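Bumping my old thread because nobody answered last time. Still need a sequence for this structure:
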């Protein structure tokens, strides 16, 4: 997964040997979606999770079609809803089913495990 900060999509192509990023998290919004499309690999995925710049965009549809891009919007909600959910989990004693916890250094193994299938959540700890 590559998070593009729009310093230049040519850098993404450099690091991916010209292929482009397979997965992009788009948090800026507005016309930056076109930068994400340009940095995208063929049949890549763009996940729109925010719009710091603008909620409206003029999209280069030719680039979108040529890349056979998949764009998905992800709504994560607001902090109060998250806090309310955690409070309800605690009060109702709801515990998520956790299959395995991996360290950050074991992230590749975690994704391989996820690909094989898991009974419960796969957790990657980003700090100890």
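Sorry it took so long. Here it is:
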């Amino acid at each position: 997964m590559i998070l593009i900060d729009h310093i230049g999509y040519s850098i993404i192509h450099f690091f991916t040997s010209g292929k482009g990023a397979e997965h992009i998290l788009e948090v800026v919004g507005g016309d930056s979606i076109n930068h994400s499309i340009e940095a995208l690999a063929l049949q890549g995925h763009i996940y729109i999770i925010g719009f710091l710049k603008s909620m409206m965009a003029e999209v280069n549809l030719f680039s979108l079609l040529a890349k056979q891009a998949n764009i998905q919007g992800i709504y994560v909600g607001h902090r109060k809803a998250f806090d309310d959910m955690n409070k309800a989990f605690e009060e109702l004693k709801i515990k998520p089913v956790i299959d395995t916890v991996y360290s950050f250094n074991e992230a590749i193994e975690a994704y391989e495990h996820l690909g094989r299938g898991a009974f419960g959540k796969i957790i990657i700890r980003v700090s100890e």
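The CA atoms of residues 97 and 120 lie 5 Å apart. Let me know if any region looks off to you.
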